[in-house]
Design goal:
The longest helix is centred in the C-terminal third of the chain and has 33 residues. The protein has a single domain, classed as TIM Barrel. Helix content is about 40%, strand content about 10%. Strand 2 and strand 3 form a beta hairpin. By secondary structure, the chain is an alpha/beta fold. It has an eight-stranded parallel beta sheet with strand order 4-11-10-9-8-7-6-5. A two-stranded antiparallel ribbon has the order 1-12. The protein contains 14 helices and twelve strands. Bound molecules: glyoxylic acid (GLV). The site of glyoxylic acid has 5 residues, from loops.
Length: about 425
């Protein structure tokens, strides 16, 4: 039995969910009966699904920031394809299986988690709400799910490890041995146990939507930027000014072993180095340096899954970067079955397009051991801060738990290929 979460949720017909403290240690692995009273605070009770947070985030955030979070590359084909891929599969429920002892508890790399999902790394999360990166990490660790700190975060990774108890770090590395060595040493010294190498960013993507909204990195001071801030006074005071007053101008803190440039500046070019030189030999180098778990993120080809395994990865994240890199790249869900087949003992994870508990179950049925979900949690942070993220986590756990019952399974590891089939209907 797990020493942490056990996947319990208590949700009645109103869609209410339990408050998201991690389930108590040594709790029985059964669901509890729906409770009469709704434990969800009033300020959160109108958020019934992950999609509800996006509407609130769009209102709360300056247009440029929301556009950066929500947007994708070029035509958004890959972004939209991620959702369409889930609609190409139907679930195949089994009935009369006695699901009264079901649990969402999931194991990954020997750890027990409340549910088979974590929070994906997302750039500039620190602008979603005050101390956004800490809010995401804290909500995740309180719920006993993993969260991945992004290299393009604005809070020193050491603080996120200490205050948010984050243990996964996602690096953007140049193909330069000395910089790789220094970064790996920094991440290790901070106490992280899982190093995620991002493999799908050899160059910056073409995100025309950012140009159209006036978003750039670094943010260029302009009348448009000022107006955008002024027309969102709550965000301006509670996030931007609160950050300036207590932490100063945010910097790219975690791109390298040393502090990067400020995010608000004229004419600063980020020193991202020769990322286009990054190659499999660098993964082998990281493997030699890094004693913890090593994960490669951005795999879409079975041949690359094999190379990741041969170069020492413990796991891979099948991902097209939320549609934010190569537009036209295949949806990870469609790549998943053939990748899972060649992955051997590596953990196979997936991100991209997951918005519902049923999506999580489809990914598991098609070969994923675990999934990561990104934008909805960032939107939850923008809408309601850490409490919003906790509520979003609880909603997704409740959906998984309910859909497990409807699918006829009691344990996450029992979700398998027989529970899914390709839909005959184009949707
Ligand atoms: C950062 O990873 C981004 O996709 O913007």
């Amino acid at each position: 039995m797990s020493d942490k979460g056990d996947g319990r949720t208590a949700n009645g017909s109103t869609g209410a969910v339990t408050p998201v403290a991690a389930p108590p240690a040594a709790a029985p692995a059964t669901i509890v009966a729906p409770r009469a009273e709704d434990a969800t605070p009033r300020s959160l009770s109108r958020f019934l699904s992950l999609a509800d947070f996006e509407t609130a985030a769009r209102r709360a955030l300056p247009r440029q920031i929301y556009g950066y979070y929500a947007g994708a590359a070029e035509t958004s084909q890959s972004f939209q394809g991620n959702f369409a891929a889930f609609r190409q599969y139907d679930l195949v429920p089994r009935v009369l299986t006695d699901v009264s002892s079901r649990s969402t508890r999931a194991k990954l790399f020997g750890m027990d988690y409340w549910a088979p999902f974590g929070i994906a790394p997302m750039g500039l999360s620190g602008l979603a709400t005050f101390d956004g990166e800490i809010a995401l990490a804290r909500a995740a660790s309180a719920a006993n799910i993993p969260s991945i700190v992004s290299a393009t975060s604005l809070t020193p990774l050491e603080r996120i490890a200490q205050e948010g108890r984050a243990r996964w770090f996602q690096a953007y590395l140049p193909g330069e041995d000395a910089r790789i060595e220094a970064m790996v040493a920094r991440v290790q010294a901070a106490g992280y146990d899982t190093f995620v190498l991002t493999a799908d960013v050899p160059v910056a993507a073409n995100r025309e939507n950012n140009v159209r909204t006036g978003f750039s990195i670094p943010l260029q001071p302009s009348l448009r930027l000022a107006w955008d801030g002024l027309s969102h006074p709550r965000w301006l005071c509670r996030t931007w000014f609160a950050t300036l007053l207590s932490r100063g101008v945010p910097h790219f803190e975690n791109m390298d072993a040393f502090r990067g440039p400020p995010i608000l500046a004229r004419n600063v070019v980020r020193a991202i180095g020769a990322r286009d030189q990054l190659a499999w030999r660098h993964l082998a180098l990281i493997r030699r340096l890094w004693p913890g778990r090593l994960v490669v993120k951005g795999i879409l080809s079975p041949a690359d899954a094999v190379l990741a395994r041969e170069n020492g990865a413990d796991g891979i994240i099948v991902s097209n970067h939320g549609g934010r890199q190569l537009d036209g790249a295949r949806p990870p869900l469609l790549a998943l079955p053939e990748i899972a087949e060649v992955s051997g003992s590596m953990a196979v994870m997936l991100d991209g397009g997951i918005r519902r508990g049923s999506d999580v179950l489809k990914a598991l049925a098609l070969g994923a051991d675990f999934v990561f979900v990104g934008r909805p949690f960032l939107f939850a942070a923008a809408a309601r801060g850490e409490a919003g993220v906790s509520h979003a986590i609880a909603l997704l756990v409740a959906e998984i738990e309910r859909n497990m019952a409807l699918l006829g399974v009691s344990r996450i590891e029992d979700v398998g290929a027989a529970h899914v089939e390709r839909s005959p209907f184009p949707r």
